[in-house]
Amino acid sequence: MTQATTDPPSWFLGGTELVDLFFAPNQQPDPRWTQDADLLRAFNFVPGLKELLMLRQVHALEHATVWVLSSWAKPRHSTAIETVPDNELLGGLSTDRGFHLYGQVNTIELQRAVQVALRRLTAGEWHLAVHPRCGTNLSVGMLLTAGFAVGMATLLPRGPIEQFVGLGVAAATAAHLTPDLGRFAQQYITTAVPFNLAIERITPTKDAIGRPAHFVQVSWKEA
Questions:
Q1: CB under 8 Å to 126, separation ≥6 — which residues?
Q2: pTM of the model
């Protein structure tokens, strides 16, 4: 995608753009395929920047892989993500070197799923980077609950009934806001389209209690 030289960098959000993102949580980002590489070249003096950029891209690839595997576990006539039931037997953990996939998965099938997920993400299916069971949602929910609880405790009278009601309101408000804000955080903070990832190898492993798992190792490449 070609942009005029007067446009702000693709990683900058300001003014009405940022407002639109908050009030349109279903809006998808429109990243340039060179944005992370450009950012790394501009700020290569920042320690850990490359690892952080890789982690965000790996995180998106992990989510997309789970979605693809879930879609293959149901009848082939419908593979749209909106109709795919989440396979709760699968879980993942991202690192800056790749991601762990936990669950009973055939290694050959996983190799194919990772390639399909990478291809679909970089082709524009950016919604695959967001997953409802992501730990980001849990973190957002905990922060919202704690923040609202402190606010209610400060504003309301100190009586036990008022404080109890305030805590309930805080929890209910946080639960209502968490899905949209968690999705927003995933889209624009904790994931990025993996334009710079190359799949190196997939290794069968075990989790901490001996259950089957795989590690999908990746490397950085110029887009």
A1: 28, 29, 31, 187, 193
A2: 0.80
Give the Cα separation of 64 and 66 in Å (integer). 5
The residues, any chain, with a CB within 8 Å of residue 196's CB and separated by 6 or more, are 36, 37, 53, 54, 57, 220, 221, 222, 223
Angstrom distances, CA of residue 10 to CA of 13, 105, 123, 197 = 8, 37, 18, 19
pLDDT digits (tens, 9 = 90+) for 99-127: 999 999 999 999 999 999 999 999 999 99
pLDDT band at 215 (very low <50, low <70, confident <90, very high): very high
Q: Give the Cα-Cα-Cα angle 69, 75, 77 (nearest 5 degrees).
A: 105
Q: 197 and 220 in contact (C-beta within 8 Å)?
A: yes
Which residue type occupies 88? E
Per the DSSP assignment, residues forming a β-bridge with 35 are none
Distance between CA atoms of 124 and 195, rounded to whole angstroms?
A: 11
How far apart (Å, rounded) are the C-alpha atoms in residues 69 and 143? 31
Q: How far is CA 56 from the centre of its chain?
A: 7
| Both tokens assigned to 39 | 């950012």
Distance, in Å, from the CA atom of 86 to the CA atom of 103, rounded to the nearest integer, reads 13
Digit-coded pLDDT (tens) for 131-165: 999 999 999 999 999 999 999 999 999 899 999 99
